Amino acid sequence: MPSRVLRVTGEQLKEFFSQDMETMKLRALIAEHILLQFRSRYLDLHCTSPRERYDLLLQRCPGIVEHLNLQDIASFLCVTPNYLSTIRKDITFEAKK
Fold first, then answer.
1. Would the CA dihedral through 75, 78, 82, 84 be positive or negative?
2. Helix, strand, or coil here: 80?
C-alpha cells in the first residue's frame, strides 16, 4: 500500500497541538480514539477466542490477509502461526459444507 510516514519529535507535536483551540480538540479526539482502540484490543484478547479474534480482524480490516504474512497476523492475534493455519483451514472446510 502506498504510504507516507512523517517523523516528528515530541516537542514538535506539543507545539503543533498548542497552536489553537481546534488543534487542542484534535489532540483530545486522537487520544480518545487511541484509548478506545486499546480498550477494544484488551477486551478482544481477554474475552474472545482466537477464532473470534480472527473473525473480528477480518470484519474490521477486509483484505488484510493479502497485505500481511501469516506470522504477523498470528502475532497480532496472540496465537502461533500453526494455530492460525488450523483456524483458516476450519473456516475453509465450513464454507465448503
1. negative
2. coil
